[in-house]
Design goal:
The chain contains 14 helices and 12 strands. It is α/β, with parallel strands linked by helices and about 350 residues long. The chain folds into 2 domains: about 110 residues, Rossmann fold (3-Layer(aba) Sandwich); about 180 residues, NAD(P)-binding Rossmann-like Domain (Rossmann fold), CATH 3.40.50. The strands form 2 sheets. Strands 1, 2, 3, 4, 5 and 6 form a 6-stranded mixed sheet that branches. A 6-stranded parallel sheet has the order 9-8-7-10-11-12, with helices on both faces.
């Protein structure tokens, strides 16, 4: 890959490649934009097929965090880090302490938290080496309930836009991925009267959700062709693509996964041309970063949940921009984020900038 051209094309400020062979650690930290504040984004632990795949994932995720934080109204920029390896390893302390040292080396430009393949206990190891970490077990803790609540509110908003009512009573929702976010989302959907069709790569997760909610379980890719009202992808990204899109038999796509569209300008348009309403993922799943910000700002869990409730109105605002400007929803979400970035970037500094103290 042509690395510098890729970074320039996506608008990133910084890419850091990190290695500590003694700790068994190989990591990548991507900082996209710090206009609104320090770059915040979780640490993903995944067994990538290649180093290039890991770099691309970090860059895409970091850019998504810039837009997510901007749309959520938070004073944070966007960043992300990935650790390459088997996230089921029990030997975690040295890996995450090594990661913490590289986060510390950035001097506060980047703040990390948990993400796919990592946990609050992993962040406690990171915290041994740096203060620039959130989502700690003794503070805001697991962001999954807040993320799931935000996705639930986004689904309700999408239902209101599509059918005129936010009620999910009797609606069928397919949920792909039953990690923490997917499981909490299933509970909220079940409590709202929705019928569930679920899948996950781990049978024990499926069993748990089926027992709790009475969901119907399907295997792997069968989730794409299952007939439902709403599809909620809550696993990895790029799952709306040339192979899966023709199989979808739903009216709405709204879930917790990041970067759901493999090629946004292609698959975002194809979705809506097929009559499927798409809730831009970085708007719908902003509850997690709201929870992390609540820790940095000293909010209570209740205030974080109230802030996540605002995702309902934000999603409706995205759909309104799309309608007013005659554009697709994924572009409308970008416009909403870019408006805030431009507004803050254009603020005039009114305090003295001179003399500079050395």
């Amino acid at each position: 890959m042509n690395l510098f051209d890729t970074i320039a094309q996506l608008g990133h400020e910084q890419l850091v490649l990190c290695s500590d062979e003694g700790a068994g650690y190989r990591g990548i930290i991507a900082i996209h934009d710090t206009t609104l504040g320090p770059a915040l984004g979780g640490t993903r632990f995944w067994n990538y097929g290649s180093d290039e795949e890991a770099v691309i994932d970090a860059l895409r995720l970091a850019r998504g965090m810039t837009y997510k934080n901007a749309v959520a109204g938070l004073n944070l920029g966007g960043g992300k880090s990935v650790i390459i390896g088997d996230n089921r390893t029990p030997n975690r302390e040295m890996i995450f302490r090594a990661h913490g040292r590289f986060v510390e080396s950035l001097g506060g430009r980047y703040v990390t938290a948990e993400d796919v393949g990592t946990s609050t206990s992993d962040m406690d190891f990171v915290h041994m080496e740096t203060e620039y970490v959130a989502g700690l077990a003794n503070k805001s803790g697991d962001p999954s309930p807040v993320t799931a609540h935000g996705v639930f509110r986004a689904i309700e908003a999408s239902a209101k836009h599509k059918w005129g009512s936010a009620s999910l009573e009797g609606k069928t929702v397919t949920v792909q991925g039953l990690g923490n976010v997917g499981t909490y989302l299933c509970r909220e959907l079940h409590a709202a009267g929705a019928k569930l069709i679920v899948t996950d790569i781990r049978p024990e997760r499926i069993k748990k959700v089926v027992e709790e909610t009475g969901a119907k379980a399907v295997q792997g890719d069968e989730i794409y062709s299952a007939k439902a009202d709403i599809f909620a992808p809550c696993a990895l990204g790029a799952i709306i693509n040339d192979d899966t899109l023709p199989k979808l038999k739903v009216d709405i796509v709204c879930g917790g996964a990041n970067n759901q569209l493999l090629v946004p300008e292609q698959h975002g348009e194809a979705l809506e041309k097929k009559g499927i309403l798409y809730a831009p993922d970085f708007v719908a799943n902003a509850g997690g970063v709201i929870n992390v910000y609540s820790e940095l700002a000293g909010w209570t869990r209740e205030r974080a949940l109230r802030k996540a409730d605002e995702i309902f109105d934000t999603i409706l605002g995205v759909y309104q921009i799309a309608k007013d400007e005659g554009i697709f929803s994924y572009l409308a979400a970008d416009k909403l984020a870019e408006r805030r970035l431009a507004a803050v970037h254009g603020l005039v500094r009114t305090w003295p900038q001179w003399p500079r103290k050395s």
